[in-house]
Amino acid sequence: MDFSPATLSFYGVGAAAVATSVATLRKRLELSRAKHGSLSGHARIARRLARLLPFYEYGEERFFRSDDAPADIAARRRAGFDRLSQLYQTRFPETIKRTAEAAETLSDFQFTAAYRVPFQYSRFVRAHLPSASFVQSSSGVMLTDLDGNRNFDLAGSYGVNLFGHDFYKETIERGAERVRALGPVLGSYHPVIVENAQALAAISGLDEVSFHMSGTEAVMQAVRLARYHTGRSHVVCFCGAYHGWWGDVQPGVGNPVPAHDTYTLNDMSESALRVLRTRRNIACVLVNPLQALHPNAAAPSDSALIDSGRSAHFDKTRYAEWLKTLRTVCTERNIVLIFDEVFVGFRLAKGGAQEYFGVKADLVTYGKTLGGGLPIGAVCGRSDLMKRYRDDRPADICLARGTFNSHPYVMAAMNEFLRRLKSPEIDALYRDLERIWDERAKAFNARLAKENLPVRVVNLSSIWTVCYTRPSRYNWMLQYYLRAEGLTLSWIGTGRLIFSLNYTEADFAAVVDRFVAAAKTMLQDGWWWRDPAATNKSIRRAVLKEIIAHRLLAPRQSKKR
Ligand SMILES: Cc1ncc(COP(=O)(O)O)c(C=O)c1O
Question: Which of 109, 310, 377, 558 could form a disulfide with 212 if both were Cys (CB 3.0 to 4.6 A apart)?
Answer without folding.
Answer: 377
